[in-house]
Specification:
Structural class: alpha/beta
Radius of gyration: 17 Å
Strand content: 5-15%
Strand order of the largest sheet: 1-2-4-3
Largest sheet: 4 strands, mixed
Helix content: 40-55%
Number of helices: 9
Distance between the termini: 33 Å
Length: 208
């Protein structure tokens, strides 16, 4: 799997109305044009240093090959991070981070998309809502980006399996699933445990 950073205003504008109005995003693209290009270039240089190793790492831990060989990351002037819920190979990251510290959240967004693909191809008959799948994908991304092997990709980030993030509604389930992840025989066992635990929970990205 390879990741290419791009500028794609048309794709980014699909998410207008979620947090920002279309006109606000259009204005930010005009105002920040040269900075978006700079971030796109610098993010790419940084990511290229880990791209191959990260790709192989995720395949090894999950036991699933990436469902697409080429992924794209659209650099946005407003959206901090958007993953793809099983509908393509594109994510979104905002422009204003350090080129190195952006790695972990970019990896997180890629793993979210990968988890959705795993679920849709192998567990779609489990009866979960999109929000429940999202919750498990987020928690899996926290887990995969916190492993010692992953630490080599962002050695300055000492947070590990952190729970002080933007989704407090996930914390209880995240804590319960940590031991399941650490003691898993394989990733599928971990996925099945998560499906069982999330089924009766009312969780969404918005019920903070």
């Amino acid at each position: 799997m390879t990741l290419k950073f791009i500028i794609d205003k048309k794709y980014d504008l699909q998410f207008s109305g979620l947090w920002f109005k279309k006109i606000e995003i259009e204005n930010e693209y005009k105002k920040l044009a040269k900075y978006l290009k700079y971030s796109c270039s610098e993010y790419q240089k940084s990511w290229d240093e880990i791209d191959s190793k990260f790709s192989k790492y995720v395949e090894k831990v999950t036991g699933y090959k990436w469902y697409y060989q080429k992924y794209e990351c659209a650099i946005s002037p407003v959206h901090q991070g958007i993953s793809n819920w099983g509908n393509g190979a594109k994510i979104v990251r905002w422009w204003k981070e350090n080129a190195y510290t952006q790695r972990r959240i970019t990896a997180h967004e890629l793993i979210l998309s990968h988890y959705f693909e795993i679920y849709l191809h192998n567990y779609s008959d489990s009866g979960l809502s999109e929000n429940q799948i999202w919750a498990l994908a987020e928690i899996a991304a926290f887990a995969l980006t916190s492993m010692p092997e992953a630490q080599a990709f962002w050695p300055w980030d000492k947070r590990g399996y952190y729970a002080n993030h933007n989704y407090p509604q996930l914390v209880d389930l995240q804590v319960k699933l940590q031991n399941k992840f650490l003691k898993r025989r394989n990733f599928d066992e971990y996925v099945r445990a998560g499906i069982k635990m999330v089924k009766n929970l009312d969780i969404s990205p918005n019920n903070k």
